[in-house]
Design goal:
The structure holds two protein chains of two kinds. Chain A is α+β, with helices and mostly antiparallel strands. Chain A contains 16 helices and eleven strands. Chain A has a six-stranded mixed beta barrel with strand order 3-4-9-6-8-7. In chain A, a hairpin with an 8-residue loop joins strand 3 and strand 4. In chain A, helix 12 runs parallel beside helix 16. Chain B is α/β, with parallel strands linked by helices. In chain B, helix 3 runs parallel beside helix 5, helix 4 crosses helix 5 and helix 5 packs parallel to helix 6. Classes of the chains: A alpha+beta, B alpha/beta.
Chain lengths: ~450, ~230
């Protein structure tokens, strides 16, 4: 019976190609836009380091002066001061790893005179950065604690820069120059697909940094700091100078500018927080942390949840896409109803000749499933082009400052989204067909058989 | 074989109740050729719909081959229509986009027969109606008489208990009507019961028995009596 119903369904689709085309088009357009937005939303909501994101915490302590405004949300609280950073790094808790970072910048060049020097930024960080955030290495490794403590001039570079500066060959042992400083390449990263650049708290859909430099080297050589300095009033007037000057004063100031991270096993979270509180209490006796003790340990999941919750663009667009899809499905209902009701006479005859209701339903469900599957395939093709379009719009909107490879992962269909699109297309088409099928299968067998 | 006891059919709307059939008592035996006559609106079609299990009824009992069809589920009624009844309609009701072979195949498909058995039955039925050479033709490529013969082939292919024919010659000229009538008589002579609704008194007289319906009431007239009535009219 299935093969007969399939045969009838295919025949019906061919009989009225214009109605079939319109139904498929309605479903495909709605599904295409819906999948475009759903993919952007899905990719945007992907948490970096998903396998350990609940244990990667942004560490924050309220070290501000007494007159500062109350903090309504963790995201509004300042980063960490340099002296707290160094003190916290000395904290030794079993299973806990810590790192921190800020950004520097400069002119970078290599020995090869054919390579044009480039203005670039670089992440300044500690050795734990590589063990905590697990960037993949193509050649070499990150630096270890020993190298860090010695203030050695080493650098880790991205694959992109390795390709650009060294033609893609193993550049470990070669040197690059940042401003006047010569650094030895000790590691080359492979492509590192972070869905969000979280470690600098920008959460942008941009690639990670191209260069990573040990903080000891950066401090000893006073590499410029590209940061916002949240200082107490006493230092507010010279805060801007901390970018290039007054390093000693900055190191002892109450200016918060370092992003501090900890990887804490579940069983140590409470203990870690208590250590933070103890640390603040100990610092209070030195006249620091004048405000009520306030700490935040916010894991990556919660940070992304907050960031995505604030993404009004995707929210509004999702709503519009869902609405458009609903309108398309309603259109599909009308077209299917018209298509099915054209054959009341045939159904009436088939019922009279012995077709059961469930046989008529099966025949039409198969037809609708075929429409749904075709609509799903076309919808996925439309969403592919939709995503390409949205990606180009984003590049255009950023005045071409955003690189294609940085945002490409956010606009890529994957198997999950393709599967979801298929399921959504088929299920919605089936839902759309409930009323038309109910109408056609309830055509009384005797109703259309009298001579017209 | 077909027995109705006090069967009534009432069509109800919010405002009106229409008694389409009133307390019908009827018994048709296997092998009979029964004609059903009556003026327009008298209830002939309703009778045919009830007899063909196309409609349900509220009062009375209807035994078909010993089984009371009253209150049977929609699926069960479909099965009965498919296995025990052959339908012949005034307007043939062939599916215009299917070849003759496939048209005859429709009721057999819903019976779940094997392809081989269906093919044999279809070929035999089309041979019986003299259209074995037109299997691949579309209905529109045939004359009205031929189309009705295809409809008859479709009706007999499943070897039903009886045929229900609703004005089978109503859309045909007299020559074709004659051919169709002869075909039905031939089928009846081989043992298939036929119940035929007609406006044509001459055709009605060719049946073994004539049933008249007037205002929803059935009067069962034996052939001899019917002949007398026609003669005296």
């Amino acid at each position: 019976m299935f093969s007969y119903n399939l045969h009838l369904a295919i025949k019906s689709l061919k009989d009225k190609p214009s109605l079939t085309f319109l139904t498929v088009l309605a479903i495909a357009l709605g599904l295409g836009l819906y999948t475009t937005v759903a993919t952007m939303s899905y990719q945007g909501s992907q948490v970096p380091l998903a396998h350990k994101s609940k244990n990667i915490f942004l560490v924050q302590m309220d070290s501000r002066e007494i007159t500062a405004d109350p903090v309504e949300h963790q995201a509004r609280l300042v980063d960490t001061t340099y002296k707290d950073t160094i003190n916290l790094m000395a904290m030794n808790l079993s299973g806990v790893k810590q790192t921190f970072n800020w950004s520097t910048y400069g002119i970078l060049n290599v020995e090869d005179e054919n390579i044009t020097p480039l203005r670039t930024t670089a992440a300044v960080t500690s050795s734990n950065f590589f063990t905590m955030f697990e960037p993949p290495f193509l050649y070499g490794n990150g630096w270890d604690k020993k190298v860090e403590d010695s203030g050695e001039a080493v650098i880790v570079i991205s694959k992109l820069m390795n390709d650009k500066l060294f033609g893609g060959e193993n550049s470990v042992g070669k040197t690059v120059r940042i401003n006047t400083h010569v650094l030895k390449v000790i590691g080359v990263l492979d492509t590192w697909n972070l869905t969000r650049k979280f470690y600098d708290r920008s959460y942008r859909s941009a690639s990670p940094d191209n260069f990573f430099i040990p903080y000891t080297f950066a401090m000893e050589n006073n590499l410029p700091r590209r940061a916002g300095f949240d200082c107490w009033a006493a230092n507010a007037d010279i805060a801007r100078s901390f970018r290039n000057e007054n390093l000693d004063r900055l190191m002892n100031s109450e200016c918060a500018w370092v992003t501090f991270w900890a990887e804490i096993p579940d069983e140590q979270i409470e203990n870690y927080n208590q250590q933070l509180v103890n640390y603040i209490d100990s610092q209070k006796s030195l006249g620091r942390f004048p405000r009520e003790t306030l700490t935040f340990l916010t894991n990556l999941n919660d940070q992304l949840l907050f960031i995505n919750g604030r993404n009004q663009f995707i929210k509004v667009f999702s709503m519009l896409a869902t609405l458009f899809f609903a309108v398309c499905i309603l259109n599909a209902v009308s077209i299917l109803l018209a298509k099915f009701m054209r054959r009341t006479k045939e159904v009436s005859l088939r019922r009279a000749l012995g077709a059961k209701k469930k046989t008529i339903i099966a025949q039409h469900v198969i037809e609708v499933m075929i429409i749904g599957i075709i609509g799903g395939v076309v919808g996925i093709v439309i969403s592919y082009f939709g995503l390409q379009g949205m990606m180009n719009i984003q590049i255009y909107a950023s005045d071409y400052t955003t690189r294609l490879e940085d945002i490409e992962p956010l606009f890529q269909l994957n198997l999950v989204m393709i599967g979801k699109a298929f399921a959504t297309g088929t299920v919605c088409t089936l839902i759309a067909s409930i009323y038309p099928i109910w109408r056609i299968c309830n055509v009384p067998p005797a109703s259309q058989l009298k001579a017209q | 074989m077909l027995k109705m006891e006090n069967v009534s059919k009432i069509y109800r709307t919010e405002l009106v109740e229409t008694h389409a059939l009133r307390k019908v008592d009827l018994h048709i035996k296997r092998g009979e050729f029964v004609s059903v006559t009556g003026p327009s609106g008298s209830g002939k079609t309703t009778f045919l719909n009830l007899a063909g299990a196309l409609e349900t009824f509220e009062e009375g009992d209807y035994f078909l081959d010993g089984q009371n069809v009253k209150g049977l589920s929609d699926d069960k009624l479909s099965e009965i229509r498919n296995q025990k009844i052959g339908f012949i309609f005034q307007s043939f009701n062939l599916l215009p986009d299917l070849p003759i072979f496939d048209n005859v195949d429709v009721p057999l498909r819903y019976r779940g027969m094997s392809a081989k058995e269906r093919k044999e039955r279809i070929e035999h039925a089309l041979e019986t109606v003299g259209l074995a050479s037109r299997m691949k033709h579309l209905p529109t490529q045939l004359s009205g008489g031929q189309q009705q013969r295809v409809a008859i082939a479709r009706a007999i292919a499943g070897d039903p208990l009886f045929l229900l024919a609703d004005e089978p010659t109503g859309n045909l000229d007299s020559l074709m009507a004659q051919q169709v009538m002869e075909l039905l008589e031939d089928i009846n002579s081989k043992g298939t019961t036929i119940i035929m609704v007609t406006h044509d008194d001459q055709l009605a007289r060719r049946a073994h028995r004539n049933i008249q319906i007037f205002d929803g009431q059935v009067s069962d007239i034996e052939r001899a009596v019917a002949d007398d009535v026609v003669r005296s009219a």
